[in-house]
Amino acid sequence: MSNNEADHTVKNMPVPYEKVKSVMDEETYKWHHDTHYAGYVNKRNEIEKELTSVDRSKANVNYSLFRSLKLEETWNGNGTVLHEIYWDTMGGDGRHEERMELIKQIIKDFGSFDKWKEDFIATGKAGRGWVVLSIDVLTDGKLRNFLFDVHNTGGLVGSIPLIAADTFEHAYYHKFGPDRAAYLNALVENIDWQKADGKFKQYI
Ligand code: FE
Question: In this structure, which of 113, 129, 146, 165 has its CB flanked by the most CB atoms within 10 Å?
Answer without folding.
Answer: 165
